[in-house]
């Protein structure tokens, strides 16, 4: 690993040595640091979120719909699952809440998406014929030179989602795509998915589509929980406050 080690700052090497034990995984983080210019904080962020095990894992049909090497690059860019721990939404959040949460934390969202994603718009309006349609989130990827349509679903994957995405990609290619741009790509983010159902839904699609899950923590981490008062302590303090208030009222 000596040649690789010399390509990144010593502080980065220390973090990798401390937090990553597998040699191949260490090499991967070194290469990605060089490729993407990660700062030390970003490197630690990616290690803690186990990017090595999530990168390139989303189900897709890119090999059948994109030329090489674009198909490999597009597949490598996708993750599964995406980590949305920066959100503060509950487990049963609706799509509108998930959408709004990602917009409010757009910097963290772009960091999770990865290098090269540029935000174009939210609920991006497309007029097709006499009808209006709105894409959840629209991005442009600078390395792929293509638009990326992202649709959010808070439930499990359904086959009809692929059909809707196919329509959006056709519309974006017709209405927005520049002649020098590559074919637009779709990402369907669902809470969960049946791998076989997703495979069948994407198999005959002519448009490049990826399907991935997402996850987020709905409980506070242990260090914070240890610092918070228990329900019994809160009730005791509340009773104490009530008694003090009643005493002050009587004295006055």
Summarize the structure in words:
The protein has 3 domains: about 1-50; about 55-220, 3-Layer(aba) Sandwich (Trna Endonuclease, Chain: A, domain 1); about 220-250. The chain contains 13 helices and 7 strands. It has helices at about 1-5, 10-20, 25-35, 40-50, 50-55, 60-65, 70-75, 95-105, 105-115, 160-175, 195-205, 220-225, 230-250; strands at about 60, 80-85, 115-130, 130-140, 145-150, 185-190, 210-215. Strands 1, 2, 3, 4, 5, 6 and 7 form a 7-stranded mixed β-sheet that branches. Helix 10 (about 160-175) links the parallel strand 5 (about 145-150) and strand 6 (about 185-190). The longest helix is centred in the C-terminal third of the chain and has 21 residues, at about 230-250. Mean pLDDT is about 85; it is low at about 220-225.
């Amino acid at each position: 690993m000596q040649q690789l080690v010399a390509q990144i700052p010593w502080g980065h090497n220390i973090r990798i040595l401390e937090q990553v034990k597998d040699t191949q995984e260490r090499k991967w983080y070194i290469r990605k640091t060089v490729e993407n210019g990660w700062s030390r904080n970003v490197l630690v962020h990616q290690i803690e979120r186990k990017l090595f095990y999530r990168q390139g894992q989303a189900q897709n049909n890119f090999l059948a719909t994109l030329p090489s090497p674009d198909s490999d690059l597009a597949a490598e860019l996708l993750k599964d699952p995406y980590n949305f721990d920066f959100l503060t939404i509950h487990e049963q959040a609706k799509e509108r809440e998930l959408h709004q949460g990602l917009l409010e934390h757009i910097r963290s969202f772009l960091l999770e998406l990865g290098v090269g994603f540029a935000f174009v718009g939210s609920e991006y309006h497309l007029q097709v014929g006499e009808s209006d349609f709105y894409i959840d989130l629209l991005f442009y990827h600078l390395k792929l030179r293509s638009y990326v349509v992202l649709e959010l679903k808070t439930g499990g994957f359904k086959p009809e989602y692929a059909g809707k995405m196919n329509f959006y990609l056709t519309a974006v290619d017709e209405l927005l795509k520049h002649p020098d741009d590559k074919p637009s790509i779709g990402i369907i983010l669902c809470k969960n998915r049946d791998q076989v159902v997703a495979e069948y839904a994407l198999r005959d699609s002519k448009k490049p589509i990826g399907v991935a899950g997402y996850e987020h923590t709905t409980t506070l981490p242990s260090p914070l929980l240890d610092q918070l008062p228990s329900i019994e302590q809160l009730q005791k303090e509340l009773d104490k406050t009530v008694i003090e208030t009643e005493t002050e009222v009587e004295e006055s």
